[in-house]
Amino acid sequence: MTHEQIYTDLSSYALDALDAHEREEITTHLAGGCVGCERELESWRELVGVIALGGQDAPPPNLKPALFERVRASGAGARPPATVVPLRRWPVVALALAATALLSIGIARDVEWRGTLNEQQRMVAQLRGDLTAAHGNLDRVAQQLAAQEKDLTSLRAVLAAAQESLAIVQAPGLRLVRLKEAPQAQPGDGHVLISASGRALFYAFDLKPLPPEKAYELWWITEKEGPINAGVFRPDERGLGRIEAAVPTDAGAVQAAAVTIEPAAGVPKPTGPMILLGNI
Amino acid sequence: MEAQELALALCRGEQHALAELYDRFGGAVYHFALRITRDPSTAEEICLDAFLQLWRQADRFNANHGSIQSWLFTIARSRAIDRIRAAGAAKRTEAEDPISVNAVPQPDETAEFAERRELVREAIATLPAVQRTALELAYYEGLSHSQIANRLNEPLGTVKTRIRQAMIALRQTLAPVLSVTS
Known about the structure:
The structure holds two protein chains of two kinds. By secondary structure, chain A is of the alpha+beta class. Helices cover about 50% and strands about 20% of the residues of chain A. Chain A contains five helices and eight strands. An eight-stranded antiparallel beta sheet of chain A has the order 5-4-7-8-1-2-3-6, with helices on one face. The longest helix of chain A has about 80 residues. By secondary structure, chain B is mainly α. Chain B is globular, with a radius of gyration of 17 Å.
């Protein structure tokens, strides 16, 4: 597999949906320390975790007590408190003798110890200062590294998108479908490039900016199922909207493409005003 | 308390943090495990195992690599998928969608969590049916691309494309709730 193929398959790797040989190949690649792929994989793993949030059931009422019963039984996780060793009851005489001896030694060496102690305290203070400075440097380097990794990941994503677009444009049997403003809509313009393999690249121009709660949504108008969502998008500051989509293959003939304004998360069927329309 | 603060409290061995995380995510983890395994007692075991692992290994959590809830659900999914693969239970004929019928808000659920859950549900519901079906077979039944292609009687390349398109669409739509993005 090329690096780009590996990068493309990371979403399925995070899903654990790859066949064994593909999985092993990607595992080996990641073990080689590819920072960009590691970062991309983390984002897919985050998504895999978040998808599960979609459902909610009342868990059985005994489950929470059972959890804490196991926590108590395992003892793991809870950090042990500092233990206090009780003082043994030494015979009073032995204790007094020991105290006297210690006092004598302590007085004799007091001056020497004080000098040593002061020197050690100065050394500790110096080491603490050095350590703090080293931590500061380390933090700065880590921040720079993180920023560079982020830039690299962004560039890889841009490159991957450009390569996917190029693949669609270079594929044989390419079709161009023009989209114009829908009836009663503001003037608009867009087009869709559709490859023979069913991959599509959509562009729209001079789109008006939308409030945060709204987005543009692209639709395939199909023979059997009517409008099928092809993805939501927001235009950039130049009013350019772009989206890649797969043309549905099992909903009968795709008769048209259209763009509507919908809630930001998108909707299963169009509800908002149609902006662009083009017959295929 | 924020999820990341709860993670730090877990590292300090504070059981109230585990209790709060359970109150916040326990229902979703149980539902998730139940959806995969279709067996209440197995779902309970997976739910317990996931929270116990979170408690035992809290010191391994790194907020730079993802959110704690994502980590928790990843643990639960991994265990649930292992169970059904071991049991050979991945032979069901169609992916059901209990999300649409069992999404019951819990009393301890925060408004933020409820909003996040709703966003996820909408994002999944918005996917084209063919993409959603392929994704759910991978996500909830642990099937590989090849197994999904066989199940749906579709070309392998079509299945791969559908799953990737679905993942791209979800990452785009759910960007506001992802703590790690590309």
